[in-house]
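## Example record

The block below lists the input lines for one assembly entry, exactly as stored, with component labels intact.
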Amino acid sequence: GQEFHFGHCWVQRAILQDLWRAFQSIRSTVQALDNNTDVRLLRQEFLRNASLAEICHLNYSLLNFYLSNVFIKYHTKAEELGILTPFTTLANNFFAILKKLQGCKERGMFSLSESSQRKFQLFQQEFTKLNPEVRLTKALGEVDILLAWMEKAFR
Amino acid sequence: DEAVHLPAPPDLSVHSTNMKHILTWSPVTIPGETVNYSVEYQGEYERYYTSSTWIPSSWCSSISTPECNVTDDITATVAYNFRVKAILGSQSSSWSTLKELFNRNSTVLTSPRMKISKDGYHLIVEFEDMGPYFEFNVTYWKKSPNSQKELYKIVREGGSLVHLETMEAGAEYCVKAQTIVEVIERSSTFNQVECIRAQDEFPL
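Predicted structure tokens for the full assembly:
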């Protein structure tokens, strides 16, 4: 089977396909609720000149953030919007990937770099500037960017 | 009508083969009545972050048989819990849950059913369609008294004819295969070796 090298750690490609499928089924619902299209939380420049280890750590921080700050608060809304099944697919697969990356981190396979920490803080600052409902919807609507960053690490 | 004591459905367990996951339980029987059941599930994410959250099963919100195909509910390689309650009219039992959580990486993988054939000098293989997660690792070789060079091919999906090799006239070729399921990082045992002989050369 094909492996998906996430920096120095690997995640199966088939799991990424499940994530894309789940996101496709919530995309239109969630992105339609985001009226603030000038603001982008996950910026392309975060990846410019970033090493694979840095990308790995940035994604680790973002996955952790999404699970404990975005998904956790959007669960009821997901139920109201009728997107709970794909939403829980995203959440549980993110959880599984985070657990795997946790193992890689503990084995020292990717290091905490200053620049990836700074980029993650930029993301957090941008996130907290927005009002609570808006930022959750925007963050969820940008999961495709996060998935693309994971895929970028595979090539 | 007089309230009947409705026990929680006992003996909940998941039976999983080739990534098809079936939840079963023992029926709750009330003489002269039809008892229905409702199934909900929780992944490791929900248990860890929002433990009071349970999600209705895709296919079993109100069913009368003590069995539910939960394949579409289990969409990550994490530990899942299920709960079932009995429903009779306006009455519901308490929930019963799994004794042991279920992770799809424990599914039983059987070796694949395979059909080999020839089209002229072409060695063809075909597998049953086992679903989106299944790939097939095919090993094949030309039988010969001295050396036996094994070749490999990954077949990405079942249900279609795949060309393996152009055979030498009169030679015998053998094939064996196993399934590979990437999302759980496991593969099945190899199936029975099957051999086929290429036709001899056409007389000039």
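Confidence is low (pLDDT under 50) at residues 1-8 of chain A. The beta strands of chain A are 3-6, 9-12.
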